[in-house]
Amino acid sequence: MSARQRLLGLLAHPPRDTTGPWLDLVAGRPGSRGRLQDAWQSEGGAGGYDGLLAVGDQIEGLVPDLLGGRNLRAFYRVDERLGLIGGETVLDLACGPGTLTRRLARAVGRDGLVIAADLSVPMLTRAARSTPFACVDFARVDAMDLPLRDGSVDAVSCSLCLHLVPDLGTTLEEMARVLRPGGPVAIAVPSHAPGPFRAVTETLARFGQARVFGPGELSREMRSRGWDGVQERSLGGIRIVDATAPF
To answer: Which of 60, 121, 136, 241 has its CA 20 to 30 A from that of 79?
Structure first.
């Protein structure tokens, strides 16, 4: 069974068009969600983001722990954080240009499935072009209205997405809904700078019309919604949060 056939079997509702490099599963056309999200919807923004992630992907194994290498590796090695052993169905939410998707694909192997999902067409175009794995399929989705059936995936990777969604709570609930009970999630979100530098990140967030998270903020929100085993750590300007879905 192909990745496309497997993905179709997991959808709550069949799409009108099942051809093309990805399935468009967004109901209607969402309006602007802020300047930063609008940038990711452009060819230039997608290209810049692709280049930035590619650099980190190439050097993460070379950076010493004293210079933040351990946390940098935690950001990229989502397959290890999710405990993948092969054969799992994984949702890569906000897959971007496919940098983490490729790692997940190698981890689940040919018996698994990676659903690379994003709202941005330029991001999906890059991901589909650079991810030649038979176990991967692509979908355009809204993170606040995931088109998957309840409990249909074994794990979720969600890197640099939650700061862009208009309703954080709805997105967290959607991720918990599509995960099997006890399934793991690996999240990365932008973090406020410490001390007096926080004013800088607050200004940047307001300009980009995006959210920036303080220490423990996302963890508290997840615990309040029933997520288990929530663990958080700092990676400079990024916070890493791992948890498991409620039973």
So the answer is: 121
156-215 confidence digits (pLDDT tens): 999 999 999 999 999 999 999 999 999 999 999 998 666 665 655 666 656 556 788 989
In this structure, which CATH number among 2.60.40.10, 3.40.50.150, 3.40.50.2300, 3.30.230.10 belongs to the domain 3-25+32-244?
A: 3.40.50.150
Contact between residue 104 and residue 90 where contact means Cβ atoms under 8 Å apart:
yes
> 66 exposed, middle or buried (CB, 10 Å; 0-12, 13-18, 19+)?
exposed
The one-character DSSP state at 209 is: T
Encode burial over 99-121: b for 16+ CB neighbours within 10 A, e otherwise: bbbbbbbebbeeebbbbbbbbbe
